[in-house]
Request: fold
Amino acid sequence: MTEYLVLRNARIDGALRHVHITDGMITAIEPASDLDDSRDVPASAATLDLAGRVVRPPFVNAHAHLDKTFWSMPWQPHLPGATIRQCIDRERSIRAAATEPQLPRSLALATRMIEAGVGVIRSHIDVDTLVGLGGVETLVQVREKLAGLVDLQLVAFPQSGIRADPGVADLMDEAMRSGVDVVGGLDPHGIDGDVDGHLDVVFGLAEKYHAPIDIHLHDEGPDGLAEIAQICERTIVSGMQGNVTISHAYALGSATSDAVAPVIARLAEAGICIMTDGPVGMTPPVLRLHAAGVPVISGSDGIRDAWSPYGVPAMAPIATQLAYQSRMYDDADFELVADIVSIHGSRVVGVDGHGLEVGCRGDLNVFDATAVAEIVAESISPTLVLRGGRVVPPGPSSWPPLPVTDLAAVGVAPH
Ligand SMILES: [Zn+2]
Reply:
């Protein structure tokens, strides 16, 4: 039997609409002023009056590390490291001593993200000579278990470097053959001390597997800016415009405005995307990048892992952090950030059917808010999350019953 859901009086782009979802797909979005009988709605249809609540496409977490998290474990006291290298070494020692399987933790965190309205996740997975492809195997299982609930894109991430950890290049090659989607990279200068050698491997694998690239770049100062310029050069020469992301790009957030200007122009020319989660003092200039035509996306980065004790599965707090660190105060800028944590991310990650349009999947978030800006300013997470026209998890008990997807069916314990 056809499953039919009508969301009445949804606030979309500031106007009230009725949204019709048939068998998991959005089949109509009509002005709320239209006569109620303008469309044949079966008597069996479920109907919910949203009374002007804001409806948005799902959040996109375009930078996560699901393979590292301690989520669902008892609290792990954080052991700080002064440098990236120290953090890498500390994490390796924690992992070498770990005895519990990673799958339940990764699955629990991904599921909590879904409940918080995230519909797309790009997760970097450590690939090095200590963990080998163990993280890849775990995340491929998570992707299979959560199919239909979240689009999970996987990145082969050389957390211990490539040249600095001989054998990683071959492991990354194997990871790409094992179902990983994106080639990762990490501080070619700061970690490997060999920018060309590092980028040879990254761009070589991308060409071999026709895969996008996403490079972590923490390096700051002139070295960091020079690396960005080199990545731009490589991207243009290899014809990969539109398929390369630089994550963090702290150099853009910490250098002077004059020093950054030519680099932004080059990024636009190379069609490179910048991922930032809005770190204090190092957030790239979001408005300048956007004005120059450089796509900006966002993500959680690690959540409760060896790198950071902070983080929650929801994307709304990250949107707030990004807006605050970018000194944004007006609605147009808040709406840009709302797009950064949603449709901009989906374009870069490259998922089909993500959006609030007829023909897209019935994946959407309903917020107890009267404007999109309110969601960003107040870190509002959705009241109701729909995936394929079904609710995950059930909404307020005062609302009429709707079709539900049971998350327990994928083996995740309730909160
Ligand atoms: Zn990261």
Q: What stands out?
A: The pocket of zinc ion is lined by residues 63, 65, 124, 216, 247, 301 (CB under 6 Å). The domain at 59-349 is CATH 3.20.20.140 (TIM Barrel).
